[in-house]
Design a protein that fits this description.
This protein has helices at about 35-40, 50-55, 60-70, 140-145, 155-165, 175, 185-200, 210-230, 240, 250-270, 270-285, 290-300, 305-320, 325-335, 340-350, 355-375, and strands spanning about 5-10, 10-15, 20, 75, 110-115, 120. With about 375 residues, it is mainly α. The chain has three domains: about 5-75, Arc Repressor Mutant, subunit A (Orthogonal Bundle); about 120-245, no CATH class; about 250-375, Alpha Horseshoe (Serine Threonine Protein Phosphatase 5, Tetratricopeptide repeat), CATH 1.25.40.10. Strands 1-2 form a two-stranded antiparallel ribbon. Strands 3-4 form a two-stranded antiparallel sheet. The two termini are about 45 Å apart. About 30% of the residues are buried.
Length: about 375
Amino acid sequence: MSAVPAEIAGIGSTTQRLRVSPGFDPLKAAVGPEDYFVLSRIDGTQTLRDVLLSTGLPIDRAVSIVARLRSIGALLLPGEAAAPGGGPPQRPSAPKLPSISKSQPLPALPRTITPSSGIAARPPSIAAMPIHDLTLPGATPDELAALAEDVDLEDRERRRILAMARLAHGRDPHALLGMPVTADARTLKLAYFQLSKEVHPDRYYGKRLGSFGARMSAVFEATSRAYARLTTNDRGRGAAQAQSASDQPQTPQEYAAELFDRACQLEIGGDALEAMKLFAAAVRMDAQARFLRRAASCALAAGQPKTAVEYAKKAHTLAPNDASAARLLALAFRAAGKFVDAEEVLVIAMAMKSENDTLSAELRNDLAEVRRLLLE
């Protein structure tokens, strides 16, 4: 199939603007990378035809993915409030953990016995939750001063960073990751990813961090070294030795891609403001056009037109002949009240060659709307 079909069975016309079903959990539904990429292109503003053309996949492949996403409750047609068949799978509620006191040690997590081995193991839902002593026994004056700093961090976040800083220069990589020496390769990987998210300085971009800024950088680097040591040490445990190359420490580009994927999940789940934080971190590490465009779209959804303009400008600079990138910039300008700039960009975009008839029509409609606004 080389051309976009006019209709797709079970969905209807490809001129419709589909939405992602609220609450749909790609991880729970075991959505694959290719399927998730297509899902991330569906934002309720583009027609299905535009989505199919923008994926870069063969049209028949993209069509089959969209049909499958629809069948598992990921997509909503215009006017639908819930997907057919009872809607998308719901995210299970998170286990409630005991509260933590400054003066009391962490309570032990419940343990279960696996039927196959009889070996004690943590329940799967919390198996990779890193455990550190947040009571900070024998806290130094420097640590006490840090706990009292006027910074934009919660008490638990401060204690986690300080507890890990104590272990950063030690010889026990398992302790730094908050895992027992019996943890298998998968559990170590999950713990590493969890800590990478919690202690990476980019997570707190724009916040007042005080002395914790330098501490977080040091802790993050030490965590990466500890994970690398456990997964590359020839004398380590057999499970760690068996890890594949995909489990090795991430490059900045790989980490940026992970941040981008997590941001897309947050955006799809309706948390645009939190998604913006991860989009910002991903763009700082790897400012590729795909990241910038999605970040601009998210900024518009989050009601941050100035930020959307910044991202859209950079994306347009990377792809000056892309009419869709130009349209996104015009939308950002319009949202920011810069109607003259929006008109100029749209006029230039309409002069670009495009085989996408739908995009051409949308550019004309956008230009007409901007000119109407200029006359008001």
